[in-house]
## 1
Amino acid sequence: MTHLLLGLPPLSAAHFASIEDRVARLLDTRQDVVIMQGEALLPLEGAIRATAGPGTTALNVITGPYGQTFGDWLRVCGATVIDLTVPFHTAVTAEQVRAAFAEHPEIDFVSLVHAEAATGNTNPVAEIGEVVREHGALFYLDAVASIGAEPVLPDAWGVDLCVIGAQKAMGGPAGVSAVSVSERAWARMAANPRAPRRSYLSLLDWKERWIDGGRRTLLHAPAQLEMLALQACVERIEAVGPDVVMARHASAAAATRAGALALGGGLTPYVHDAAEAAPVATTLRAPAGTVAADLVARALAADPAVPLAAGGGALAKEMIRVNHYGPEATPGVVRSSLTALGAALGEHGLDVDTEGALRAVEAAWG
Ligand SMILES: *Cc1c(COP(=O)(O)O)cnc(C)c1O
């Protein structure tokens, strides 16, 4: 018996390096790209532990749940952490970051999430990058939810550590991820006695034993299924065209937003300003007197295929997430998501206009 997923030969070092190069092209970066054999939290944590320590003063921007996690890691590393928290219905502005530097000129590290699939906002990284560069701080960016859905340009934006994962807009596997690392970031790690070494979390191991050796010998057997899947999803984006893939996500977000407003019943976009809404996923505020998690359960009972979820934790009461990313960024998925939500709101006795919502989706798709 043969099986597609079994009995694969090990992935060669040259093949591994070629997939890194493909990811570097996707990011339009000349920095080193390290692919890590795990979900994106691996490079997200590894990059913080490598670059932050007791001498670090970190500005940690919180626009959703991941920022909270990064702040916790930074504190564990001994860094002094200044949290800049903005309400989840909005994005952070470059002005707010500038004001934080004015108040704390000692800031030498900035952590930011680009797009938040969990809260539906997206932050102006290019503008924030200018401020970070003016002050010479190291810039750490979580681009897991933006890659594939909107431009991610670490070199142009001055990002020193840019982490991506394949599982959102790239439509790939969750078990592999990548980080681009600037020369400045490598220098910080080399100077940090607490940076993980001889550890699965270690980026320096990849620098010293893989990159500096000319990428000839891998540190351990690569996860070949995930690597092949990562290669396949980058190839697919190249073949279709990154602009086309990103435009599909932007259309899905615009259509979901317009459709939700036309649906009525008190449903409103969670992120107030459309310009601050992420292309990867649209969040909606459940109408007054309803519970988001209950509406999602009813909608999924009406159509189990739609990519709906309630917000995490305390947000489960008020936030509905439409995860229109990867293969779900299609007009059909947006239509069926709104139809299912319309059914849920109708069952709740609310007055909805599903036909009107579907017309708004067509008009907004563009
Ligand atoms: C999805 C996502 C990740 C990956 O984390 P999971 O909890 O494993 O999904 C990291 N950062 C952001 C901003 C994400 O949206």
## 2
Amino acid sequence: MDFFSDNSVGASPRVMAAIAAANDGSLSSYGKDDWTQRVEERFAALFEHEVSVFLVLTGTAANALALASITRPWGAILAHQEAHVCEDECGAPEFFSDGAKLVDLPGVGAKLTPGTVTEALTHLRAGDFHQVQAQALTITQATECGTVYAPAEIAALKQAATPRGLKLHMDGARFANALVTLGCTPAEMTWKAGVDVLSFGGTKNGALAAEAVIFFDPAHAEEMKWRRKRAGQTLSKGRLLGAQFEGLLADDHWLDLARHANTQAKRLADAVAKGSQARLAWPCQANEVFLVLPPATQQRLKAAGIGYYDWSPRSLPTEAPLKDGEILGRFVMSFATKPEDVERAIATIAG
Ligand SMILES: *Cc1c(COP(=O)(O)O)cnc(C)c1O
């Protein structure tokens, strides 16, 4: 039994069925097929806005290409220090932007605040040719710590970045999980709050391998057709990607999948909060639970064969650091997490 990540499981059966259906017949290649065209229309309706959509295979490609589209090589991209773009993309954002610099910033629960952004901007002098120029701010929704930004918080971050004209990117690898928690519309969580470009996650939500880069201003999308092809992310059998999103988005399947994952996470979080030797590092707001685990609890989990990641404690509140022998454990739930597995984890942690 493992709670390592929401990409340890395969795809939702509905996504697999859509892929199988898209396998039939002869269709235009390179994303000009009906499946991909329909998905673009679905995204426009979903976001209640004109959108330029580019489907890719990985989240790293989505983030790196999205950021490259809104920065110049001498640009700076402000990000949380635990952000996937800083920690888990092997320099892809720097590479695909031809050298833009990631500026990593701290924040409890992997969240940035307007104050942190404003402070960082004072150290990046506008117009000084000795320095990189602040051009983009990227946030993750839900964050790497399973917390979420409310629309008003996103708007406040954009406001802090606006005097310097920064564009706002959202890494939405867990977009659906954040959305069902907040209960707002996709529009409220993005362009209405100032997001310029979004990496819309499919894979962790239940696709096999599909992510979408969504621009809310077609001007920013101008270069993307070349960038995506240059990065080897323009699939000739583009229907493969279109079909995956069709399978996810039809009948709000993507929201049902995210709701299941979040519900399982909340069960574990609530059980721990009720009284246990383990404690919640911060509130569980999506499909991930972060628990401070004393040594005895770690041993019980190990003996029971329950897998989780030993996570960096950097984003813990300074007033609640780890004590001797404690670790921060990350438990991730997916659309396929079995309730009985969560029960067993709860019982094991309770001791
Ligand atoms: C999983 C994940 C991604 C995508 O990663 P790939 O392995 O490149 O598909 C992007 N951002 C976040 C926050 C993630 O958790």
